[in-house]
Amino acid sequence: MNVSGWVWAATLVALTAVLLVDLLIIGRRPHEPSVRESSIWVGFYVGLALLFGVGLWLAVGPSVAGQFYTGWLTEYSLSVDNLFVFVIIMGRFAVPRQYQQKVLLIGILLALVMRGGFIAAGAALLAQFTWVFYIFGAFLIYTAINLARQGEPDEDEFSENVLIRWSRKALPLSRDFDGAKLTTHEKGRRLFTPMLIVMIAIGTTDLIFALDSIPAIFGITQEPYLVFTANVFALMGLRQLYFLLGGLLDRLIYLSYGLSVVLGFIGVKLVLEALADNNLPFINNGEHVAWAPHIPIWLSLAVILGTLGIATAASLVKSSRDRRRELAAARH
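Now predict its structure.
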């Protein structure tokens, strides 16, 4: 796929314009969006991603469109998992609901910047060293195993990282929020508000999730344009999705296991591709491994869709059964 400079420029301008509109809406009226408002925005962003894939299909072909859809679905699923941690952070720091939109938007912008940097670095590495696939694959398999063991995090398991602990000790902090401001005045002194600590927590969380998501999508496509656009579309609407899902996030108890299967599958796929293009002298005498199969994009899409669908359905069935049992126990 040969993407010209003007296509890159047009894409960046269009996506930036959409994000700026969203930013202006938040800046003009901080509020907790209703279910209807959130549904409209989520539907709008999902529709944009689907239309973008159709455009790729018509302009370049079904193979490229399939890579975009598979990468977008994977990144979107990982972003939903990211929301679990956002919920914990908002609860831990008692962020007022009407200001959570701004926190989420800044978190998404930070994620875009971090992922953009990782995409550029990953593309440069892969262009020069195909053996990086081994590292990416091993990292994803390791992440998948850890995710399956730990499950979804809860507030009791959340621990503040070194940067947050240092910020609490070193910075002059006020006890209360002052709207969505990062600083405030108390008794003639300028202090940082707890909102700054929340931003630090969100930013470091974004960094950790970027380390997982970028190797995952490079396991689906090595085209930087597709990697970038899939990530941007996956992050768009995440803020509204946070409010739309609400309590439903607590019911997706098996999502982490589904994601662990997806990450493990992509990790194995990366290792197989590395073996097929092997040039490391200590593996198969530096020769390509002929038996390493190529996993087609349609199979990857089917595995990801099927796994996430099963995990979501099983989660909803399990949570529904648990709720009925709780209600029956309460009656007795």
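The CA atoms of residues 36 and 244 lie 8 Å apart.
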